[in-house]
């Protein structure tokens, strides 16, 4: 099965629009979702804060456990890890426009989640 890296921006955007991104990538693309340890750290910090995204971050962490999403170990900044690992995975889902451009220039398949729930 092909794998796809999910970044924090796509996960939070999907949840804020009541979309289960983990389920969506499995059903629509037949890809196995993967996140980095950095994404887990970012979500954990948000979940413990009083930021507007804290409830979405908490739900994201629960969904990562529920779907038994593979967590790749890394000590690097999340975007740097994604850029350095993208060639091996060949698929990344991000709603970060700058990151998407960088990945596309490397020939990596990039996806974004829309408000309607489609991956494009």
Question: What does it look like?
Answer:
The protein has helices at 8-16, 21-29, 37-48, 54-66, 78-89, 97-105, and strands at 3-6, 32-36, 70-72, 91-93, 109-111. The protein is of the alpha/beta class. α6 links the parallel β4 (91-93) and β5 (109-111). 38% of the residues are buried.
Give the percentage of residues in beta strands: 15-25%
Q: Which term fits the overall shape?
A: globular
Q: Name the CATH class.
A: Alpha Beta
Average pLDDT score: 95
Assign a percent range to the helix content: 40-55%
Structural class: alpha/beta
Short summary of the structure?
The chain is α/β, with parallel strands linked by helices and 120 residues long. The chain is built from 6 helices and 5 strands, in the order E-H-H-E-H-H-E-H-E-H-E.
Topology:
Layout: E1 3-6, H1 8-16, H2 21-29, E2 32-36, H3 37-48, H4 54-66, E3 70-72, H5 78-89, E4 91-93, H6 97-105, E5 109-111
Parallel strand pairs: 1-2, 1-4, 2-3, 4-5
Helix pairs in contact: 1-4, 3-4
Features:
Rossmann fold; five-stranded parallel β-sheet; 53% helix; 120 residues; alpha/beta; single chain
């Amino acid at each position: 099965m092909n794998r796809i890296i999910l970044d924090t921006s796509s996960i939070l955007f999907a949840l804020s629009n009541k979309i289960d991104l983990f389920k969506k990538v499995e059903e629509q693309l037949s890809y196995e979702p993967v996140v980095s340890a950095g994404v887990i750290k970012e979500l954990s910090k948000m979940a413990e804060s009083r930021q507007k995204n804290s409830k979405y971050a908490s739900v994201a962490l629960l969904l990562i456990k529920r779907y038994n999403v593979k967590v790749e170990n890394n000590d690097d900044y999340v975007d740097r890890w994604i850029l350095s690992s993208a060639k091996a995975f060949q698929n990344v889902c991000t709603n970060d426009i700058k990151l998407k451009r960088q990945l596309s220039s490397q020939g990596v398949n990039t996806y974004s989640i829309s408000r309607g729930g489609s991956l494009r």
